């Protein structure tokens, strides 16, 4: 394991219940990253999506992939939120969700840099469970400087 959840929190501003990355297991700076989200029955979103048949919302799968991509962006640039930088999710293209993600699944999150121009990153991203493809997409994130409180 390269980064545990406490180390991930140094590179992502999200916190519970919106931090959707539990660990990073592979990283090639400036190129690619692999992380995991363990899906448990007590995730807050399962209370309403859907009672009696819990399914992780697709938009949260997209968010989890964007968060993994954000870790790669921060680590590659040697920047952190505490230094006044954020990566904003600005878009997703060609989104395809292929199977539901349910409690007990371990969601594998992969992102690969396609381009990085003037702080705008484009990533090829995919999520899988047990080597079965859950979803694929192209994600765009923008690096921005912000005031640190």
Automatic annotation (TrEMBL):
Its EC number is 4.2.1.59. GO terms for molecular function: (3R)-hydroxyacyl-[acyl-carrier-protein] dehydratase activity. It is found in: Cytoplasm. One of its GO terms (biological process) is lipid A biosynthetic process. It is an enzyme of class 4 (lyase). It comes from the Bacteria. InterPro entries: FabA_FabZ, FabZ, HotDog_dom_sf. Keywords: Cytoplasm, Lipid A biosynthesis, Lipid biosynthesis, Lipid metabolism, Lyase. Signal peptide: none annotated. It catalyses: a (3R)-hydroxyacyl-[ACP] = a (2E)-enoyl-[ACP] + H2O. The active site is at 49. Coiled coil: none annotated. GO terms for cellular component: cytoplasm; membrane. NCBIfam families: fabZ (TIGR01750), PRK00006.1 (NF000582). Involved in unsaturated fatty acids biosynthesis. Catalyzes the dehydration of short chain beta-hydroxyacyl-ACPs and long chain saturated and unsaturated beta-hydroxyacyl-ACPs. Belongs to the thioester dehydratase family. FabZ subfamily. This is 3-hydroxyacyl-[acyl-carrier-protein] dehydratase FabZ. It comes from OM182 bacterium MED-G28.
């Amino acid at each position: 394991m390269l980064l545990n959840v406490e180390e991930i929190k140094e590179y992502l501003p999200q916190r519970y219940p919106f931090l959707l990355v539990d660990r990073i297991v592979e990283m090639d700076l400036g190129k690619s990253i692999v992380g995991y989200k363990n899906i448990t029955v007590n995730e807050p979103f399962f209370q309403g999506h859907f009672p009696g048949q819990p399914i992780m919302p697709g938009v949260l799968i997209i968010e989890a992939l964007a968060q993994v991509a954000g870790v790669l962006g921060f680590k590659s640039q040697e920047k952190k939120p505490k230094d006044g930088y954020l990566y904003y999710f600005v878009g997703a293209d060609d989104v395809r969700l292929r199977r539901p993600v349910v409690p007990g699944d371990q969601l594998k999150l992969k992102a690969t840099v396609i381009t990085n121009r003037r702080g705008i990153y484009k990533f090829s991203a995919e999520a899988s469970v047990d080597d079965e493809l859950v979803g694929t997409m192209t994600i765009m994130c923008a690096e921005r400087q912000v005031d640190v409180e």
